[in-house]
Design brief:
Layout: H1 2-13, E1 66-76, E2 81-90, E3 94-103, E4 106-109, E5 112-125, E6 132-147, E7 157-175, E8 180-191, E9 195-199, H2 208-218, E10 222-233
Antiparallel strand pairs: 1-2, 1-10, 2-3, 3-5, 4-5, 5-6, 6-7, 7-8, 7-9, 8-10
Length: 235
């Protein structure tokens, strides 16, 4: 009997993986599941950049594609005078204008009384959509010079020179964003129906005869047109 108990005790002591009196092994721990990577928050799209500002010439005002407004100009046409009128520009490429002479309408030079009327109309193209233009100008001038008779009741001497003209024109019209525009025009008007009429009493002694000869010499073919300054406002 002692031999049997000793044999059992020896057998228990040599069982592999467990020391005598040791507690049963803990079950193997299960590794923790890996956390999924965090999803980045969606990035809001950047706001669209505003369209680039139009730095070109001004081409429209209160009416889309159209600029219009009043103007005043000092015109070196025959005769030189101050004119008021109207300017129009469409989509930056086409323009038109009309102007009428307002000063002087009459004046006295030496012993002659002068009366004058003049008007002009223009049609223009702006090939580069800028200030430079080419076009046509149509106009009219009418000048009357009168010398009163030296004796009471005598017949006055009168010279009238008039013409309708048509010709080419070039120039520049600079339009600013706030509405002001400046202009400079050069052209030549070929006479379409030039007329000069001198009425004077027999044996009259005055300079109107010489004035008629000079007018027929220099104005019969045509007149140069030079607008020294044009000032206006476009809406």
């Amino acid at each position: 009997m002692r031999i049997l108990v000793a044999s059992l005790a020896l057998l228990v002591a040599v069982v592999p993986g467990r020391a005598p009196g040791a507690a049963p092994d803990d079950p193997p721990s299960t590794p923790a599941a890996a956390e999924p990577p965090a999803t980045p928050a969606p990035v809001a799209p950047a706001p669209a950049a505003p369209p680039a500002a139009d730095t070109g010439p001004r081409t429209e005002g209160v009416i889309p594609g159209v600029l219009f407004g009043p103007k005043v100009s000092t015109t070196m046409v025959f005769p030189p005078n101050v004119m008021v009128g109207f300017e129009l520009k469409v989509i930056g490429y086409v323009g038109a204008s009309f102007e009428y002479g307002v000063y002087p309408r009459s004046l006295t030079v030496d012993k002659y009384e002068l009366q004058m009327t003049t008007w002009s109309a223009g049609l223009r193209a702006y090939p580069f959509r800028g200030a430079f233009f080419v076009g046509l100008v149509l106009g009219n001038y009418d000048l009357t010079a009168t010398q009163q008779a030296s004796t009471p009741g005598g017949q006055p001497s009168t010279l009238n020179v008039s013409s309708l003209y048509l010709g080419p024109q070039i120039g520049w019209k600079w339009a600013f964003d706030f509405g002001l525009f400046l202009g400079l025009n050069l052209g030549y008007g070929f006479s379409l129906d030039y007329q000069s009429t001198l009425v004077q009493p027999p044996l009259a002694n005055n300079d109107l005869t010489t004035a008629k000869e000079n007018a027929d010499k220099y104005l019969k073919t045509g007149v140069p047109i030079f607008t020294l300054l044009e000032l206006g406002w476009l809406f």
